[in-house]
Write a structure and sequence with these properties.
Residues 78-90 have a biased composition (Polar residues). Among the domains are: 47-173, no CATH class; 813-862 and 876-975. It contains 18 helices and no strands. By secondary structure, it is mainly alpha-helical. Helix 1 (2-44) runs antiparallel to helix 7.
């Protein structure tokens, strides 16, 4: 059995190594699965792109190329041909023969259409800048929330590329060239994805080959275990052969006993022959009787101060008949003394049994206390684990609540978009009413002007000029129509290219899906291999156990049969010996009574002496055993103290484990706080987007001169609805990322649970080793097992501590980055708010002055037929500027406002200003919230402010004069 145990140890070690290798394979599979999930999340986290409007970016590169609508609007607004043509047409209309002509309504319609086109271009540039700011904000949130290296390598663009992309928006780019560049970039990205998929496939093949090699190693180890099992069977066969040899030796001893019996029979015959010589030796017996008398006399002298056995008759004076009584009394005294000593020995044995019983009771109490402590610790661990499960369920519910809040916010955004559409309809009605009022005023002014011009005789010339102008307008419209058709064709081509890019994206997603399916197949294959290994292991263990039990049972049956046969042989030989002894006794009965008595007395004396020597030897042996038991009791007491020390060490270890558990719980709570902070940041981002949408709606209030502006507002409301859907999708992705972090936290808790389980196994192994040590001392093996378990626990604790330190460092770095970004965003927001307030004040003053001057200048501007308008004299008073100069100044100011994307809160008429003031009254209080939108939007505002300064330098002299006059008036009013 010892040899079987010694041979079974390597098999157990091999099983442990197989389990370790299987766990390592599972860990590698989980790492591969996480990498592929990161690649898939890199693709799937990007929202599905609907057919974008002309002013929105594409899926692949939204920051490195200009928008199609923005490019077209900029090209159209900056085209020298179109700008010169528009200005020349307006000047011709305003400075034609007769000033405004005899039909000012037609001229005014053409001037209004050109002004509306100019305002549409400026508004398009504003919307492009706002869309770029929203896109940069989304990218910033996406890049800061993501931590995957593959994601950054696949879609992240450096800051200098973003700057170059933003600078490239100010250039004149043709749509076909940008589409080709987009197609080329999309193809490069698709090729990059294919290379990544190919590398993942190669890595999968390599790992599969490694797995096969490991399986071959496991098969080799299994064959080695089978060889060891065969060697064990051979060893058992050798032991059976040794048992057969022992049985043969026992049979030889039986034969030797039979030979001895035959010798005893020969000795009996020799005794019969010597009976005759016994009579001759009678005198020797008498001499022996005299010797017995002398021995009794010696005993009598040593007995209690020399007191004789029979009063008045010492042994030396007794007759032969009384000598037997004296010898009997002497033997009785010897037997009484032996009984006393036996009683002493019995009392010692009773004390020994009591001490053994107390030792067993103490041992059982210690085992019961140990089991109770283990059960209590297990209950505590189970309670802690239940608490952890409850907490994880609560976190899951919190995540569901966050997702529900995101959906609710998306619904609110949709409702806001609907309310905005209704608001647009109201604005449309308001605009139509204002246009009607403006038309009535203009008609009244034109009636006055026609009354003043009725006396002139240039009607026919003006009619001819008006016809010529109408023909020129028709020619211009004919020239514009093919350009519009070409633009529509370009739009169709861009849509086709967008469809091709979407197809390429779908193909990449299908390839990634195939990789995912392959990975799942590989994981299932690993699980099947593991199950196969477990089945092989269980089968080999069961076969080994069955063979060992069968061999033990056969050996036990064989030894029992041999022992029974030997016992029967010994019983037969014993009966023969007893029969021979009876015959010898019958022969000896023929001897005389004296010889029998003397022989009996001599035998009894020898027996008494032997019993005395045996009792002394037994007493010495019992004394030695008592000394050994005392030493064993002392050793057990020392062992008990050592076990108490070990229990104290285990209690310290459990305290350290509980401290680690509390640390993990605190870390989990910190993670929960960070999760709440991230949720609040997401809500702040949504609030910032809503604020941006409100600012954009306030900009829409400036477009009140045409129904085309109402259509643009509707398109912008649709874009806001799409943006709200994207933000909801971003919130869902954020919730998924938080769920992934919760999964990581659960993995850490699982590691802690495994550590606790390993510690419990170590404690159970230590307890088993202690029990084996009590049964058969093997302190070295128990200490080795305890050291091994301690090393494993230390390794697990070190791994857990390293993982926690890495998480803490990463969180600290993220917090520092967020704090720095928030600080920069706050400063930039404050600067932008100051610039906005300054520009709003200037705009309000300009509009007030224009409202005051425009009614005054309209009656004072008589028509100048067939003459050019007089040059502007900057030295004149406030009444020196004409209606044309005022209109030009108003157009310059509106273009200035259109070029400043930082000024998102324009002030309109009294009615529109009241409605806009309700939504933007708390701009100062929300400055810090706006600052958290991201660096990209702030940089856009800075560039917008710089562009506004350049626009100030590009104003006409009349506009500069008006602005200087406004500043002078503001200074005088302040003084």
């Amino acid at each position: 059995m010892a040899s079987y145990m010694s041979a079974g140890l390597p098999a157990a070690h091999d099983g442990a190594s197989l389990d370790d290798q299987i766990r390592q394979l599972e860990l590698e599979g989980s790492i591969l699965r996480s990498q592929v999930d990161e690649i898939l999340s890199d693709v799937t986290q990007r929202p599905p792109q609907p057919p974008p409007p002309p002013d929105t970016p594409t899926f692949y590169d939204s920051s490195s190329r200009p928008h199609s609508r923005a490019g077209r609007s900029r090209d159209q607004s900056r085209s020298p041909y179109r700008g010169n043509q528009r200005s020349s047409s307006v000047d011709a209309i305003l400075a034609g023969p007769g000033g405004a002509g005899s039909r000012p309504s037609d001229y005014h319609h053409l001037a209004d259409s050109s002004a509306e086109q100019h305002e549409l271009d400026t508004m398009s540039s504003k919307l492009d800048a706002q869309a770029a700011a929203a896109t940069n904000l989304q990218q910033r949130l996406h890049y800061t929330s993501s931590a995957s290296p593959l994601h950054h390598s696949g879609y992240y663009q450096p800051h200098h590329q973003q700057q170059s992309a933003r600078l490239s928006r100010t250039e004149v780019l043709l749509p076909p060239a940008s589409a080709e560049r987009e197609l080329r970039e999309s193809r490069e990205q698709a090729e990059h994805l294919r290379r990544e998929l190919r590398s993942a496939h190669d890595r999968q093949l390599r790992e599969k080959a490694e797995l096969r090699a490991q399986l071959d190693g496991l098969r080799a180890r299994l064959m080695e275990a089978n060889g060891q099992r065969e060697s064990l069977a051979n060893q058992r066969a050798r032991e059976a052969a040794a048992q057969d040899d022992l049985i043969g030796r026992l049979q030889a001893s039986v034969e030797a006993l039979q030979a001895a019996n035959r010798e005893q029979e020969a000795a009996l015959l020799e005794t019969n022959r010597r009976l005759d010589t016994a009579k001759r030796r009678q005198f020797g017996l008498e001499a022996a009787l005299a010797d017995v008398r002398g021995v009794l006399a010696d005993v009598e002298t040593r007995r209690r101060g020399g007191r004789p056995f029979v009063e008045g008759e010492p042994v030396s004076q007794q007759e032969d008949g009384v000598l037997a009584t004296t010898l009997e009394r002497c033997l009785q005294e010897f037997s009484a003394e032996i009984e006393d000593r036996l009683r002493d020995i019995g009392s010692l044995e009773h004390e020994l049994s009591e001490s053994r019983r107390s030792f067993l009771a103490e041992k059982s109490e210690l085992e019961a206390a140990w089991q109770r402590r283990c059960s209590e610790s297990a209950d505590q661990y189970e309670a802690e684990l239940r608490k952890l499960r409850d907490r994880s369920a609560e976190e899951q519910r919190r995540l569901e609540l966050v997702a529900e809040d995101a959906r609710r916010e998306a619904e609110q955004l949709r409702s806001k978009a609907d309310s905005r559409s209704s608001r647009v309809a109201e604005l449309e009605s308001t605009l139509s009413r204002l246009i009607d009022d403006y038309d009535r005023d203009r008609k009244a002014w034109e009636s006055k002007r026609s009354a003043l011009e009725s006396g002139l005789d240039s009607t026919q010339t003006e009619l001819a000029e008006s016809k010529r102008l109408r023909e020129e307008a028709i020619k211009e419209s004919a020239l514009i129509e093919p350009r519009l058709k070409s633009a529509e064709a370009e739009v169709e081509e861009l849509k086709a290219e967008r469809d091709e890019l979407s197809e390429a994206r779908d193909s990449a997603e299908t390839e990634l899906h195939e990789v995912k399916t392959k990975l799942t197949a590989k994981s299932t294959e690993v699980a099947e291999l593991r199950a196969l290994i477990e089945a092989l292991k269980e089968e080999s263990d069961s076969l080994t156990k069955e063979q060992v039990t069968k061999a033990l049972a056969e050996e036990q049956q064989y030894t029992q049969a041999q022992s029974r046969s030997l016992a029967t042989q010994l019983a037969a030989e014993t009966e023969r010996c007893e029969l021979q002894a009876k015959e010898l006794q019958a022969v000896k009965a023929d001897v005389t009574a004296l010889e029998r008595r003397l022989a009996d007395q001599s035998e009894e004396r020898l027996e008494i002496e032997e019993r005395l020597s045996a009792s002394n030897e037994e007493l010495r042996h019992l004394t030695e055993r008592l000394r050994q038991r005392d030493e064993e009791v002392a050793r057990l007491a020392a062992e008990r103290d050592r076990q108490y020390e070990q229990e104290a060490g285990r209690a310290q270890q459990l305290a350290s484990v509980l401290e680690d558990y509390r640390h993990l719980v605190s870390l989990f709570e910190d993670r929960s706080g960070q999760l709440a902070a991230l949720e609040s940041r997401g809500r702040l981002g949504v609030a910032e987007l809503e604020r941006a949408a409100a600012e954009r709606d306030s900009l829409y209030l400036e477009l009140k001169d045409s129904r085309l502006e109402v259509a643009a507002l509707r398109a912008d409301s649709e874009a806001a609805r799409v943006a709200s859907g994207r933000e909801a999708e971003a919130l869902r992705k954020r919730a998924a990322e938080l769920a992934a972090r919760l999964k990581d936290t659960r993995a850490e808790l699982a590691l802690a649970r495994d550590a606790l389980k390993a510690k419990e196994e170590a404690e159970e192994a230590t307890a088993a080793a202690a029990r084996r040590h009590q049964a058969a001392p093997s302190a070295s093996a128990a200490s080795a097992a305890a050291k091994k378990q301690q090393r494993r626990q230390q390794q697990l604790q070190e791994r857990r501590l390293m993982a926690l330190e890495a998480d803490n460092e990463r969180l600290v770095a993220e917090l520092d980055t967020w704090a720095r970004q928030c600080k920069e965003a706050t400063n930039s927001a404050r600067q932008a708010e100051a610039a906005n307030r300054r520009l709003r004040a200037q705009l309000a003053a300009c509009q007030q002055v224009l409202r005051q001057q425009l009614p005054q200048q309209q009656p004072q501007a008589p028509p100048q037929p067939r003459r050019k308008p007089p040059p502007v004299d900057e030295g004149k008073s406030n009444g020196g500027a004409g209606a044309d100069d005022i209109r030009a100044a108003l157009a310059d100011i509106q273009s200035l406002l259109g070029r400043r994307p930082a000024d998102k809160e324009a002030v309109g008429d009294d009615e529109v200003g009241d409605s806009a003031g309700e939504g933007n009254g708390d701009a100062d209080a929300d400055g810090q919230i706006k600052g958290k939108a991201g660096d990209n939007r702030l940089q856009g505002r800075r560039r917008g402010t710089a562009g506004g300064c350049e626009a100030d330098r590009a104003l006409s002299p009349t506009s500069r004069r008006l602005l200087r006059g406004l500043d002078d008036k503001r200074g005088t009013s302040q003084q």
